Request: fold
Amino acid sequence: MTRIATLPEDERLPHLQLATNLSAMQEAFQSRLPEFAEGRWKIDEVDIERFDYKPGRKCSICYELSLHDVAQGAGASQLLLGVMAPNGEAEASFAKAKREANFPPVFGPAAYFLPDLNMVLWGFPNDPAIKRLPALIDKTRFRALIEKYWERLRIGPEITLRDVATNMVKYVPQHRCTFRHVLELQKSRERDSSAGEVVVYSKIHDDKTDGEPFFKIVQSVRNTPVCQSGALLVPEPLFFDHEINAGFQRGLHGQNLDLQLNKIDLDEAAAKIGAVLAELHQCSLEGLEDRPLDDELLKFAKVKKILAARDSAYNPKLDFIDGELRKRFSSLATLSPAPIHGAFRLTQLLLVEGKLALVDLDGFVMGNPISDVGSFLAHLLYLPLKGLITQAQARSAVRRFCQAYREKAYQGLPGEVLEWYIAVYLAGREAGKCLDKANKVSKRDYESMIDILLDMAIAILSGKMRLD
Reply:
């Protein structure tokens, strides 16, 4: 669930407070939306999954509805994208939506208008900016699409598609969506004979974004020496379809590394990851966008603002971290930009038959290579707070990673730059994740976890916590 800070008054969007009041929206959806209003489906809870607000212009809120069938008792969920706009603009948007939103969601309407909120609701998979998204949900359309590129799968003409099961992996409303498709195969001459399964992932982009350059990044990464040598596996890019603006990759049959922590030698894995990352940073990838040096500093500033509004007791710690980060910021420019993953951590790594594999490749940019290092190590230091590893295991893995990276990296591992990135990730991204979860009923004390993360960032920046 996304944490919403106290919103200011907005003359052009005067209903922001109501739209972010979950109990009020649950009542509105239950009493006004078709099928819910008739009593067939009961909404048990409403959460906000994503929130995007542009003052005076537009506010987009992705709601997740947890519901159940009143007669059968079966539980389910449905995403609703609410787009608020000023008077006049919202009505025009709904008139257009009625012409375009024609794919029936599992629950509720494809499009609906709440005039008192100036809000148009879109039932997933309908999206005003990703109009071709239903092509990846509708079995008939998806079958035609996959058969069009059947040769790219290298399955063989004697094998045909029996059925497909599609699950949404990640949805960023009005921007992109990733799906996992399990293709159930059969022998063409033996209709009742199973021929196994193939897993394919698709990523579709909004209508104003050309998705092909992102797909080409995946191809480029796969062709790097570290991947060609087999030291690092990446998903095989299969094809890009221009008509729906989506790229397709073959799924890897592996296990998420962060779910295998009790089964692996973490020190050994950390050393391998450090060496592989250093090699990846020395590869040549063309056409990448530049990531600004202050990118993570700006993200930390957003988290700082929300934390300060939540509890002023955080302010002394936040002010110290902010001051130290800004004081040391100039040191980041001493390193040449390199291709970086941008979100490098254990959750992006798989074990495939004992080999390391990396996913989510299309976010590669040119940036400070130590950014990836800091991202990975901050995540390692966060894991003990979740009880997944001990502090001793985390610190040992940090040392092994740093040693392996330093030996392979052309620029070594500058201590001051490394401290900067670990601190900004601990106090920004990791604390931000805890902040998002703090409002949900949970067995974990996320408030205390935020304090610990801030304390670690302070200890690193003040030299009281050595990393290697």
User: Anything to note?
Assistant: The chain is about 35% helix and 25% strand. The chain has a mean pLDDT of 91.
